[in-house]
Specification:
alpha/beta, Alkaline Phosphatase, subunit A, 2 domains, nine-stranded mixed beta sheet, two-stranded antiparallel sheet
Length: 493
């Protein structure tokens, strides 16, 4: 399973003819489902990756967002950040909290494989902890991610007490390679550059360093760990993630035995570049051309190590909105909210709290009514009413799929209210760049391509849910799926 973070289907299609490497190979020889979507309303990294691996919605797997709140028996709220697990530690770093799948409430494809055959190996590699962990599933598999605070790939003590020898060896050479990556230079051919926006916009990056070349330390401070953080927001992150996945493929002899193995790779650079510069930026085009090369490297390694005995799926966890300013320049409706907008919204919510705080049901009604009065909110619902509204309201149905009992999410989730912003509206947390997370198609529609053994090349139109990915791969190897993963598998021939 290959997941490219923040790789919307529109972006994939816009540059489809510009990919001479791995993405082009998948387009030419794969089975592409052209109308694939995530079918939940909060389109973030954690929900998307968990849906791909478990075949279920956030309402079943519990990863409702990257951040939610839980309430204890005294009524006090506390933050929960997807996979962060303070009961654990990172390997080789006793003072750094670890991560685990403790809050993932559904099993994944890797878990199903190991339950049938303990000799099956499950390996997951990413630039982000939540991506690597949620693609692997609930078990203590082989899971590694790049940890900027350590400047290397690592795992947590949930999985093992110390890093595998092949990871240690990989990390020994990583520092030198990182030192060679202090300049991110433009490598887009002149014939393609005009397909992206001009290389300068006040709403990009930090608002100052908006053009190539991008350099460290010019674009970052010199505090400990600052370089690794800067580096992990460049295309170089995907190069090293892919390299480690290729090492794992070889060192763990994946796909060479009689058991079925699973290798999951989540490539994170597209998300970080997209957030900073936007999907239509020259930076994103440069990143995507490099991504194409990395996917090509992975396919070549699979050919070399496994031959014709692998099946690959490529998809994404979510798409993204173009920056409001870029849309406004074309006459489209879009909005970037300010801190003042946020303050006014909070003041009005405070008035409802003071008036109805002792009556949760009436409070939810009042907050929903106040939210609907905002020009930048498309709709708002008390959560208790979502199920009744959903059959006639697609936004409500999508938001309902994003809720899990005991996990409060969203602007007003702690008061039992869900809201949907108007399209292409960014919250005040994003003074520059862009974001995702909405129930609209630009955030939900993603690439979906199957390739390799058991797959007949074709372009397949019509509705296709990402919840069918794990059941489809399971079906290829005769593996039964748990009752919760009930989405019908795709026809691959």
């Amino acid at each position: 399973m290959v997941v490219v973070d923040q790789f919307g289907a529109d972006l994939f299609e816009h540059y489809a003819d510009a990919f001479p490497g791995g993405l082009g190979r998948l387009l030419a020889g794969g089975r592409r489902f052209s109308d694939a979507t995530h079918d939940h309303g909060i389109t973030e990294t954690s929900p998307g990756h968990a849906t791909v691996s478990t075949g279920t919605a956030p309402a079943e797997h519990g990863m409702v967002s990257n951040l939610w709140f839980t309430r204890d028996e005294r009524g006090a709220w506390s933050r929960a950040e997807n996979v962060i697990d303070p009961t654990l530690r990172m390997t080789g770093a006793e003072t750094l909290a670890g991560s685990s799948p403790a809050m993932l409430m559904a099993s994944g494809l890797g878990d199903w494989l190991v339950a049938r055959d303990p000799e099956s190996r499950v390996v997951s590699i990413s630039g982000k902890d939540r991506a690597a962990i949620l693609l692997a599933g609930q078990g203590a598999h082989t899971v590694y991610w790049f940890e900027p605070q350590l400047g290397r790939f690592a795992t947590s003590t949930f999985y093992r007490e110390s890093d595998a020898d092949w990871v240690v060896e990989f990390n020994e050479g990583l520092g030198e390679r990182l030192e060679g990556d202090r300049n991110w230079n433009l490598e887009v051919p002149d014939r393609l550059a005009s397909r992206a926006r001009a290389d300068s916009a006040a709403f990009e990056g930090d608002g100052i360093h908006t053009t190539f070349p991008h350099q460290f330390p010019a674009e970052g401070d010199t505090a400990a760990g600052a370089f690794a953080a800067w580096w992990s927001a460049t295309p170089y992150l995907d190069r090293e993630t892919t390299s480690l996945a290729i090492v794992a493929l070889s060192e763990m002899n994946l796909g060479r035995g009689s058991s079925v193995d699973l290798l999951s790779v989540s490539l994170s650079a597209t998300d970080r570049v997209g957030h900073a510069y936007g999907p239509d930026s020259l930076e994103q085009l440069d990143n995507l051309l490099r991504l194409d090369a990395q996917v090509g490297r992975l396919l070549e390694a699979l050919d070399r190590e496994v031959g014709g005995r692998y099946t690959l799926v490529l998809t994404s966890d979510h798409g993204v909105s173009r920056a409001p300013e870029a849309l406004q320049a074309e006459g489209a409706a879009a909005r970037r909210l300010t801190q003042e907008d946020g303050s006014r919204f909070n003041e009005r919510a405070g008035e409802d709290l003071r008036a109805y705080g002792s009556d949760p049901e009436r409070l939810a009604q009042a907050l929903a009514e106040s939210a609907r009065a905002e020009a930048w909110i498309a709709s708002a619902w008390p959560e208790s009413e979502l199920a009744g509204v959903a059959p006639g309201d697609s936004l409500a149905a999508l938001m309902l799929e994003s809720l899990y009992p005991g996990r409060a999410v969203g602007l007003l989730g702690r008061y039992g209210v869900q809201v949907a912003l108007t399209p292409h509206t960014l919250l005040w947390a994003w003074p520059r760049g862009t974001d995702h997370g909405s129930p609209y198609l630009y955030d939900r529609r993603v690439p979906l391509v199957f390739y390799g053994a058991g797959v007949a090349p074709a372009v397949v139109a019509g509705r296709a849910s990402t919840r069918s990915i794990a059941p489809t791969l399971a079906g290829l190897v005769g593996l039964a799926t748990p009752p919760g993963a009930s989405a019908p598998p795709f026809v691959l021939r």
